[in-house]
What does this fold into?
Amino acid sequence: MTKRNEQIWDPALRIFHWALAAAVVASWLLGQFGPLDMTLHFWSGYAVAVLIGFRLVWGFVGPRTARFASFLRGPGVVLAYVRSLPARKASHARGHNPLGGWSILAMLGLLIAQIGTGLILDPEDYINVGPLAESVSTEWNRWALGMHHKLGVALLALVVLHLAAILFYRFWKREDLVTPMITGQRR
Ligand code: HEM
Ligand code: HEM
It folds into this structure.
């Protein structure tokens, strides 16, 4: 029997994914451990913003597997999928599975909030003021500063979960999700 390759991720989505991973890791490391002057952190943050902007558009006009409407499923479908999770077999989802779809939306939402709070925060260090900090009140500057920190921790947790899920699929369900995100194809 010949094995058939099936295209599941289009090239734009794959470039988006790996560029996003690089920009988010850079933003996180520069934010936490970077130089006192955070210009580089700002630029990597803007790169994340551009990528997310693209993804939001692609979620409506991109190919089927990229569309929000195709992978954001109702509670019944999600619950049925969760019940099937422990089974030791591949999910064979033609795109994101019903649970993964929502986790991706959570990741995109968190990144949007991270960018939004970064733009308006003011740490009062006279160096790294968010470019839109002056358009909101001091209370908002301070609130955004606290949130930017908390969301940074939440983002780290979500990325760890993302990688743990991929390992769970690889070793428990014996399903390789990473190769399709590189080549676009699933066997
Ligand atoms: C900070 C790092 C990362 C972020 C923010 C991130 C974010 C995302 C997002 C937003 C998606 C959804 C793709 C879309 O439809 O637009 C996704 C999917 C995916 N990511 Fe990542 N990712 C990161 C790191 C990684 C790494 C290091 C790997 C590989 C080891 C990886 C493997 C995958 C795979 C395999 C999928 C597809 C999952 C599926 O089949 O449903 N990601 N990631
Ligand atoms: C996805 C994108 C981003 C990520 C992952 C991120 C992450 C972080 C992290 C982890 C910190 C250290 C926070 C702490 O521990 O207190 C930080 C600080 C900071 N970020 Fe971001 N950030 C992003 C985008 C932005 C953007 C777009 C801006 C503004 C244009 C920005 C402005 C700042 C500033 C000014 C600080 C310093 C705050 C302080 O002094 O405590 N960030 N960021």
Notes: The beta strands are 6-7, 185-186. The pocket of protoporphyrin IX containing FE (ligand 2) is lined by residues 24, 27-28, 31-32, 38, 41-42, 45, 48, 111, 114-115, 118-119, 121, 123, 125, 128, 130-131, 145, 148-149, 152, 155 (CB under 6 Å). The longest helix spans residues 138-171.
